[in-house]
Amino acid sequence: MRKILPLCLLAMVPAFAFPQMKKIAESAMFPETEDGFGRILQLKNGYTMLIVFPFRRGVDVPAIDIKIYDAKHKPKVSKRLVPKYGKLDHNGGIEAIFESNGDAVLLVNDINKRTPTLHRVVIDGVKGIFKKQDVIATIPEVTVGKAFALGFGGVPGPGFYVHKDPNSDLYAVTTLNSMTPDRNKRLEVALYNGEHEEISRGFYHSPEDKYKYLEYIDMAVVDQTVHVLGYAYNTRRSGGKENIMVLGTLVKGDTSVDVKELDFTHDLELDRGLLKYNPATEKLMMLVYVTKSKGVNPKGYTRLIYIDPATRTQLAADDIFPEEADIKSRELFGRKADYEGRPVNFFLNADGSFAVVYEDLGVRIWQSSTIAGSTGTSLSGGTRMNTELKDLAVSMYDANGKIIKSYFLPKRHYLWGGQPRAFYHAHRAGRATRLYKGDQYKSFAFINGKDKKILLFNDVEENTKRVLKGKITTIMGVGECDAFYFLLEGEEVLPKREYVYGDAVKRKDHNLGLFAVGDYDPVNNLYVTIKADAEQKNIRLIWMEP
Fold this sequence. Notes:
By secondary structure, this protein is mainly beta. The chain has six helices and 36 strands. The chain has an eight-stranded mixed β-sheet with strand order 11-12-13-14-18-17-16-15, with no helix packed on it. Strands 1, 2, 33, 34, 35 and 36 form a six-stranded antiparallel β-sheet that branches. It has a five-stranded antiparallel β-sheet with strand order 6-5-4-3-28, with no helix packed on it. The N terminus is likely disordered. This is Arylsulfotransferase (ASST). It comes from Chitinophaga chungangae. Keywords: Signal.
């Protein structure tokens, strides 16, 4: 009996030591694209596509690099395609990448000759060839005078917005032409089916024609009906300071958007928001960040509003906050270290429960000057803003909106470019990620599995222990970083972290995860991302089972 018991305990060890992120397959290595856009897309047939839009200095011809792997993760296609749209640079963007009928659909915003144009590109998901290329929306030329109004007149910028329905092949496109003098022609909504046929199209009318400015916030598709959330306002110069959120509805076959003011949002100073439909509760959920101060680091609060999609009336509203994360932040970093994270995404579950992810978005302002002479006269100076993506918090809620648990995940990621705002992570979902100066490695992924919720990001190993002492190292470059994951379960507010690819000390190297371009398939519980050696410029795809 004395011999049997130890043997039984040894037999149990693998069950407890088995990694949460199980490697299924890896691709061969290939060169990394360091400047451009990129995205991974898992198709319903089990195929995987890596789609990259490289920026090539001195080359005016645009390119799309495609890699396709079959259901067994074997390479099938590797080629460069030349699309019809013009040269793509940082002024343009990939507004959406999604699957439709087994193909990849790319919606590309090409700002050619100051005329924003939305191109639709359909690529065969098996052969990697063009199946369709057309233009589905344009905005008139942005002249110098119009650009001045955008920069100094408080006019919201023109643009395109795309929403793919997660429950069907339907997708909606909203065009914001903020420069047109007709207030009722500034925002146009179109709905398409999986065959890329237009189902409905209509303009979003200003309520009673009383608001000069209209901004797009978000949209959701419910049974071939598009719900579009907007922010209508006036300034003191344009008829008296006033603002309100409006919800427009475009029903299948309609030629105009029916707009209703949401009276319960009157005079809320809105930063940004999200709109999602919860099939389990049959309610629209509107999550917004309301600011209470001005400046580059505005203070505010998060409000969750439940709306009846039929009547567009408020059913309930709650101001939410990850209190357990706030307590843990002060416990680790001092009594003045209040948690100031803003909502960046939220995720729905099949049973109606959901998770809200917060991130502390701190803007750093750098001022520099050149000093000359004994008097200390400043001959030149400048100001630069950069963002530090700081501590994360995740709150779990049941279907009734009751908070179950919050988790706190300290980190410091310094961005060399861009100033993300509230909900930036949600707005990036479904689009291509900007690849620039290594910033693409300074983001997180949230795997919303049926039974597991996992968060991943890159960090240095020393922060594992430094955080417990109330200290933390800021990540400027990623050469010493490794990929970590956090299983969000249990009662501990500060979850334990583990290496995604195994202990770096034992490997004697550093491996990163390009989580910003990864894709999770909840049906097959398969997560695909890019694995990179921090010291090399070669990368590979890796398929993992959470």
